[in-house]
Amino acid sequence: MNSLKLITLLGISLLLSCSTKSNQVDINQDFTAGLDQMKSKETKAVHRHDFLVYADETNLDMLLKEERATFVVFGMVTNDYSDFERKYGIKVRTENCVITPGISKIALLNNRIISDYLNEKFSTDWIADLGILPFGMN
After folding, report:
1. Taking a C-beta distance cutoff of 8 angstroms, is the pair 71, 52 a contact?
2. Which domain of life does the UniProt lineage start with (predicted)?
3. How far is CA 28 from CA 44, 53, 91, in A?
4. Which of 3, 47, 54, 63 could make an S-S bridge to 69, C-beta 3.0–4.6 Å?
5. Using alpha carbons only, what angle is made at residue 105 by residues 51 and 93, rounded to the nearest 5 degrees?
6. What is the pLDDT of residues 76-113, one digit of tens each?
C-alpha cells in the first residue's frame, strides 16, 4: 500500500515538473487594480527566427543558410549549447518532456536529417562536442 502511494506521488511530481517550463513568474502583479491602472510591460519583438521549423528533405538547405536548423531535445533541463551552435551552426532546442506520437515522428526525422548532414560534413566529431545524443539518435 505504501509503495502505491509513493508511485502516485512520484507520478504527480513528474507531471508537475514537466508542465512547468518557464521559471519566470511575475508575483508582483497587482490583480486588485483595474486593467487601465496596470502598467504595461515592454514586449519583445518577435522575429521569424524565433519559431522552430522542423527540417525535412526539402528545407534543410534553407534552414542551414538562415542558421535555423535545430536539434530537438526533450527533457526538463535546458543546457548551454552555445559553443556547439557557434561551431556547427546548428541550434539545440529543449522541449518539455511530454512527447506525443506526432511530434515524436517529426522530431525524429528532423534530428536524423540534421545528424546525417553533420556526419557528412564533420564525421562523428560533433557528437562529443554536443555532449548528448539528440532524440532518436541512440
Report:
1. no
2. Bacteria
3. 20, 35, 34
4. 63
5. 35
6. 878 899 999 999 999 999 888 888 898 999 999 999 99
